[in-house]
Design brief:
By secondary structure, this protein is α+β, with helices and mostly antiparallel strands. The chain is built from four helices and 13 strands. It is globular.
């Protein structure tokens, strides 16, 4: 661990680290309504405003096997740069969270990557897993929502289904501004229901270091 990582880990954070670790350990997921700070909300929305023009249709698959498939997902994405000074507070918090999860749950998380996502009206993402056991370096998924005043009839909910960490049946999360959801990438099947208005979010993954030869496993 570098000195910069130690200093960040020792900072006070707005994230309820113990509660997040407990939720992941006991249920495989946690939902945190209205958890983002106002400065982080402003920074993420500003990044969205500046970079929406860069968004491209999201693909399914991994590495060179990635393909567009409008029957599976209809959203557009662009990756966020962890070196962007305007997003320093966001990425510092994600570093703090990564180190805290390693300390509490011994997950061996190596890094964090994230992207902005836009579901236009009619957009969806069919039921899927973010990682298949033993075939991906993703271990913990994160979604943060950037939508003000989302109404019940506008669709676009995140639906999480029971798996090894059994949910009673299924859980629907409204994509309201400031809500954050974390879940185990290999254990929680989920989908995004069809939205009837523009739906914006940040999707991210905490990953382990699967080294292949002399190179790091690339982003999934």
């Amino acid at each position: 661990m570098s000195p910069s990582e130690i200093s960040v880990a020792d900072m006070n954070t707005w994230l309820p680290l113990d509660r997040i670790a407990e939720g992941l350990h006991e249920r495989g997921y946690i939902v945190l309504p209205n958890v983002l700070t106002t400065t982080i909300v402003a920074a993420l929305i500003d990044a969205l405003d500046k970079r929406e023009v860069e968004m491209r249709p999201a693909k399914v698959g991994r590495g060179g096997d990635q393909r567009s498939n409008a029957f599976v997902r209809r959203d557009r994405i662009t990756w966020l740069d962890p070196q962007d000074p305007a997003l320093a507070e966001w990425f510092d918090a994600m570093l703090t969270l990564r180190l805290a999860l390693n300390e509490r749950l011994f997950l061996g998380l190596f890094d964090f990557e994230c992207q902005l996502a836009h579901y236009a009206p009619g957009g969806f993402y069919r039921r899927h897993l973010d990682a298949f056991r033993g075939r991906s370096n993703r271990r913990v998924s994160l979604v943060t929502y950037l939508n003000r005043g989302w109404l019940p009839d506008q669709g676009g909910e995140l639906v999480m289904y029971g798996a090894e960490h059994a949910l009673a049946s299924q859980l629907k999360i409204t994509p309201e501004l400031g809500t954050m959801v974390l879940f185990l990438s290999q254990d929680i099947p989920h989908e995004v229901l069809t939205a009837s208005r523009d739906r914006y979010s940040v999707a991210g993954w905490f990953r382990i270091n699967d080294t292949l030869g002399n190179r790091l496993d690339p982003p999934a």
